[in-house]
Predict the 3D structure of the following.
Amino acid sequence: MAVWKPCRSPGSSFIRPALFLDRDGVVIMDRDYLSDPDQVELLPGVPETMKAAAAAGYLLIGISNQSGLGRGMFTIREFTAVMNRLDDLLAQSGTGFDGFYYCPHSPEDGCECRKPKAGLLAEAGETCSWNAAASWVVGDKTSDVALGRGCEMGSVLVRTGHGAAHEREVGQLWENDPKVLIAEDLPAAFAAVRRAQQQGPDQ
């Protein structure tokens, strides 16, 4: 596993909830093995949603499988340029990630950090704490949902990115699970999370 930005929990008297956000297809347009920073494009409503989540007390932690590195499809320098561009775009809107972790391996590597395995969360947990019962993973693949549920957190599948193609599978695997939600995009996902938290026992 690798760290692009280490998470540091600001000093407070309580452990905060977190939103663990996949990058491609959730925060930015999915452009299959993105290596060109000029192609980084925020999805509609993302900066506003991240600002609202931060204002509501959520940590914003990015978690991303980046098998293009392990496959040799782009370099770490190109990946860093993409991440710097994303950071700049978010900063221009007054928001950003509290931490960002990624898996640089190919599926064949058998690593412990490729989602749905929990290595990325374990790495983040070295420097950051969160309230798992009130935290959610937001992604566009079945593996994102599996990660959240496997770590006793809620999960939201968004239909952006590859989400629409995974919706049926997610619905079948977690039918009637109140901690698995499906939403149109990140803004809708956060709205659904807030509704679930207000109705559930964790608030």
Observations:
- The mean pLDDT is 93.
- The longest helix spans residues 76-92.
- Residues 90 and 96 are 5 Å apart (CA to CA).
- Residues 2-199 form a domain with the Rossmann fold fold (CATH 3.40.50.1000).
